[in-house]
Amino acid sequence: xxxxxxxxxxxxxxxxxxxxxxxxxxxxxxxxxxxxxxxxxxxxxxxxxxxxxxxxxxxxxxxxxxxxxxxxxxxxxxxxxxxxxxxxxxxxxxxxxxxxxxxxxxxxxxxxxxxxxxxxxxxxxxxxxxxxxxxxxxxxxxxxxxxxxxxxxxxxxxxxxxxxxxxxxxxxxxxxxxxx
Length: 180
Known about the structure:
five-stranded parallel sheet, alpha/beta, single chain
């Protein structure tokens, strides 16, 4: 709910809002919460579209093409992964259509940090942890990540997985042997 409320707070009253989401439990749940948060602010999306991770590239591009041509949104909320966002956003870029894009936490990936060919320039997205923070504990984790993985950038997902594993290890060290 917090993520949806934060995302909805980025919308202006004069925005033509579109939502594109992945067709899974995460996508449906966050889209419903975002719809409720927008409604609470007196805003209604002009369109809500879904896509499936298994779709081929032309089919995902078609979602963006149809939105750009038929609904002319000024704000796109994207709930899904970065490669699919790039495909949905491309038709807007092809016609030099300015559109604000706000992604959910699922969109974060190492490709956002490297931003190949500027495909994510202008994107704003939800992030719970800053894996590039200069804070000492995060720098220590980043150094260990590079030692273990030896490539790429650490994402929030990696930091959260690390935290979950550390909690599990501490529980085991404390004597826990069951999930109860």
